[in-house]
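Please, structure for the following, as tokens.
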Amino acid sequence: MRKKILNVLKFLIFLSIGLTLLYIAFKGINLNDLWTDLKHAQYKWVFLALVFSIFSHISRAMRWNILIEPLGYKPTTLNSFYAVMIGYFANLAAPRLGEITRCVVLNKSDKIPFDSLVGTVIVERIIDLITLVILIIIIFFSKINFFGLFLIKNVFNPLSAKLSNFFPSAGWAWLLFLIGLGILTIFWLFRKKLSRITLFHKLKNIIKGVIQGLKSVYTMRNFWAFLGHSLFIWTMYFLMTWVLVFSLPETSGLKPIDGLFLLVIGSLGMAAPVQGGIGAYHWIVSLGLTIYGIPKEKGLAFATISHESQILLLIIIGAISMFLFIIKTKKTYISENIN
């Protein structure tokens, strides 16, 4: 009961943050004009963007399988795709819940150790983070007086301010380091006694599984296929962002480098600790489009089309994947018990 209450509280906190950002983004906007822009948008480009999005999800499932193979398991692409889409669906309930959910799904369908799967997902997130950082650097230096100033003002400065608040001085950083070192020392000295405690034993198994999953990146056989899928995924992300600029007259004149800029800031918005990037994505993308002289109302129309079309896709495919996964799991359970 207590756990359920905490989960509800987490959901409400994250949702309230997202709705607050959404309110800030839409504050002062004429909703009738926004609705008119949405009605007259060219939705053939939205459809094409969704096709690119689906390709990226399929490729992500295939890339995940490459990481899982060194663990001694070979899940089908379909099972991994179900897990990925159900994970995205779960992210709409709480940020980062999807990473855990997709590991649970594949654990149930293919009996792969959950702890090891978590390690592979961590590897995936590290690769995606490195890719995003590379794109940020490219954008920053491609037009430093244009994109660079925007990123400094709206991303780097707020982020550095938050970090300085979290670590107000070097003394605090050293204190946290010493506390962490002390905890690790205590665990090491009393590890035999602690190993008898069930919770510690489970934690130890989780850490071992995560390490095993992380090692898969060094033992993978198809490194070039993994790299190819990584490039393909982010190419699809770029294309699904780029083609959307043609859906509105005000954004249709943007160039490919501008599409890359929108991908970068949109990814930062989606990474915000709110369900599905709601509010954060709308705010930063509409703000980013103002540097081109595009009115905030038109920028919000673009952000709304981009965000809501993707969210709708995740809801539909995620719900279908969950339904098919449940049916498949029941059939497997019945078959195993009959035999």
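The mean pLDDT is 82. The chain has one domain: 2-114+133-152+221-338.
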